[in-house]
Design goal:
179 residues, globular, mainly alpha, two-stranded antiparallel sheet, 6 helices
């Protein structure tokens, strides 16, 4: 028990910083914490998401995507009729925190190798709520992400980083290994 090794060297404890150690001040965008610059947080973000105009835009997007019914079996047209009556109660549940999304319907999508990729299909109502939240949160959060982040972001795709690396290597006059 007396032979405990400390992770930090004695030199670092005295204030010296060796090469390769983490700098005290962040120097890359990935390490900077989001600034507390948003005046609309929590409940007011939810109120923004549930505002009439935002919900109208969300409905247009959901309708344009022409997705299939979820576990409730309601199509887009049927959901429109359903929400005419049920929306006030659903909105109240969202605002008081008691709303729970429906389970997703599992669908198997055949792949070229003969296996299936499982896909979860939410109800149209849940897709509408997700879209409304996305429209409010994405413009506030996306600028906080690293410029090198490509996952599930608008205008970016998985091939983006590969192309950026290829361009950078070609500009530097080096060709990538062709193993």
């Amino acid at each position: 028990m007396n032979n405990v090794m400390h992770q930090m060297s004695k030199e670092l404890k005295r204030g010296k910083q060796k090469q390769g150690e983490t700098l005290l001040m962040p120097t890359r965008d990935e390490t900077v914490f989001p600034q507390q610059q948003f005046k609309h947080t929590g409940q007011s973000l939810l109120e923004q998401a549930l505002a009439r105009e935002n919900m109208r835009l969300a409905w247009q997007r959901v309708k344009a995507n022409k997705g299939s019914a979820g576990v409730d079996g309601l199509t887009i047209a049927q959901t429109a009729e359903h929400l005419k009556v049920q929306w006030p109660a659903i909105k109240a549940q969202l605002l008081n925190g008691s709303y729970r999304p429906q389970p997703v319907r599992r669908v198997g999508i055949p792949k070229s190798d003969g296996t299936e990729r499982e896909l979860g299909v939410p109800t149209v109502t849940d897709r509408l709520i997700q879209q409304a939240l996305l429209q409010v949160l994405q413009p506030k959060l996306d600028p906080q992400f690293s410029e090198h982040s490509y996952g599930f972001r608008p205008g970016r795709r998985a091939q983006g980083p590969e192309r950026g690396i290829s361009r950078a290597t070609l500009c530097a006059g080096r060709l990538p290994d062709s193993r």
